[in-house]
Amino acid sequence: MIMNDLHILRNTLKDLFRFKKLLVVLLISALPLLVAVLWRALTPADQFVKADVYNRLSELIVFGFVLVMLACVFGTNLVAQEVEQKTIVYLLTRPVPRWRILLMKYAAAVIATIVAAWLASGLLLLVTAGASASGGAKITVAHDLGILAIGALTYGGLFLLFATMFRRPLIVGLLYTFGLETWLPSLPGNFKLLSLMAYLRELAAHPAAAPVDVTDAAQDPMSPALAWKVVIAVIVVTVTAACIVFTRSEYVPRDDV
Questions:
Q1: Would you say the pTM of this structure is higher than 0.85?
Q2: What residues does each domain of the chain span?
Q3: Which among 18, 116, 194, 227 has the fewest CB atoms less than 10 Å away?
Q4: How far apart are CA 151 and CA 42, in angstroms?
């Protein structure tokens, strides 16, 4: 049984990192590096505060775009690809419970997302290595890598659920990514509680580039304790729900591709 699980995991990873997909992943992962290089080229040396640039780009691009986009691309494709390639019938006839098949695919998508997100964070560090000479905030790469892994599990679970529920999960995932997750984290008050990214940014705890108003900070509903509770709950609920849906649903090859 373990050999079957490992076979599914290995084959899924192989599919996720095929040459064409790998090029897309590398382009997405290189985006923070390109922005940092441009920022450094257009900023006088004495005004380029490495730690501030790293924290800002890590929050906005690595967490806000790269992590979510990669999780969406990898996660929503797990079931749809089997249906489109008409291999779903052979996959489901394996002597493995459906929920275990899906968990192995989820594990592969999470691994792929973590590796690509870590690559993006590492490339960003190449340009913004070190700490601010003016005594500003420090770069906490190790902490970022840990929260990126948590983010891969969280968004991976959500997009896994999309993959089992919708016929065109990638479209739904992109609408979610560029719709809700683009503007909800920036809204004041309780609106940000609807965004997973707001919780991950709370856990990452990147120092703000500008001073934070004490009154606004006191009224902020977000806290690390709440963020951990929500993130763990989302992982458990979405992955469990996805396994239930995948076990009970019927998937047949499509002829419209």
A1: yes
A2: 2-248
A3: 18
A4: 32
